[in-house]
Amino acid sequence: MTHATAHRVVIVGSFNVDHVWHCDSLPRAGETRTGQYRTGPGGKGFNQATACARSGAATVFVCALGDDEGGALARALATADGIDLRAETSEEPTGTAGIHVDAQGRNSIVIGPGANATLSGGFIARQAQAVTGARIMLAQLESPADSVLEAMRLARASGVRTILNPAPANAESTRELLAVADVLTPNETEFAALLARHSSERIDPDDVAGADDERLHHLCRTLLPRGTVVITLGAAGAFVSHREDKCRGDEAAHYRVPAYEAAVVDTTGAGDAFNGALATSLALSAERTFADHVRFATLYAARSTEHEGAAESMPVLATPGVVAPSAPPTPSAGAPR
């Protein structure tokens, strides 16, 4: 698929080969369970790049790959989806992930970073032309923090809007990195972890969705005073917090967006679907309110949960930036985390 480069999204991130076991319930410590096995592509960066490409954006994906079958798989899949792959070759093996998914679609994941941990700032700098010509830069934290910071700084210096998905929750992050994000997109666990790491505020991840809106807004402003925070809340949808004088077309500085109904099969890539779709919507339709961008991303994420897999679950849209809802927005299990 081809798209106008004026609507380009650049993603800096990870590619993993996913090894997935579906079982009745997630295994507990010391427990052995029987399940069905499959393998496929994943990694937060690649999932988000696939979501961007399939939802309609011209997509550049910057990553590090091993010289192995996993690397070859990444190149073939990127070509199939029209993704402009910029890969630094690593002596480490291509990244891997072990994923368990239970009967309710919930998951637990262990990552083997491999090549992802070797993505260098120098390689990022060599992609400057692609970055500075983009409309949106999207990054996560499965790559070295210094390399992500280099990419975000390069984008910001050129007036490119930046989105940081601070995942996974235990990943390294700095105040310096948060400061170069125009939009921050944590889930409940990541939000609580960032607050604990970078402020004196504390909140239990299980309490985020049910917290008072004014309190959530205060916590978001504490975490990212100059930018927008979107907390993805699973069945509770999403919470949006803007700086008071920069509401990005919205009437309110903070509000909630409900989830869409979905026939949930697998939630593994839902958060990545949300982030990729949000980047696409911002790149393709700058005139929309921010709330419209979040609604689009929430719906796209809900549709992704209706299919198995991570990157493979990303819906292909017939019309770029447009996904037809099958149901009105209501709280459901089919929302991004």
From TrEMBL:
Substrate binds at residues 16-18, 43-47, 142, 272. Activated by a monovalent cation that binds near, but not in, the active site. The most likely occupant of the site in vivo is potassium. Ion binding induces a conformational change that may alter substrate affinity. ATP binds at residues 187, 232-237, 271-272. It catalyses: D-ribose + ATP = D-ribose 5-phosphate + ADP + H(+). Belongs to the carbohydrate kinase pfkB family. Belongs to the carbohydrate kinase PfkB family. Ribokinase subfamily. The keyword Cytoplasm applies. Its EC number is 2.7.1.15. Its main location: cytoplasm. Gene3D superfamilies: 3.40.1190.20. K(+) binds at residues 266, 268, 304, 307, 309, 313. The active site is at residue 272. This is Ribokinase. HAMAP family: Ribokinase. It comes from the Bacteria. It is found in: Cytoplasm. One of its GO terms (molecular function) is ribokinase activity. Its cofactor is Mg(2+). Pathway: Carbohydrate metabolism; D-ribose degradation; D-ribose 5-phosphate from beta-D-ribopyranose: step 2/2. PROSITE patterns: PFKB_KINASES_1 (PS00583), PFKB_KINASES_2 (PS00584). Requires a divalent cation, most likely magnesium in vivo, as an electrophilic catalyst to aid phosphoryl group transfer. It is the chelate of the metal and the nucleotide that is the actual substrate. Keywords: ATP-binding, Carbohydrate metabolism, Cytoplasm, Kinase, Magnesium, Metal-binding, Nucleotide-binding, Potassium, Transferase. Residues 7-315 form the Carbohydrate kinase PfkB domain. It comes from Luteimonas rhizosphaericola. Homodimer. Catalyzes the phosphorylation of ribose at O-5 in a reaction requiring ATP and magnesium. The resulting D-ribose-5-phosphate can then be used either for sythesis of nucleotides, histidine, and tryptophan, or as a component of the pentose phosphate pathway. The keyword DNA repair does not apply.
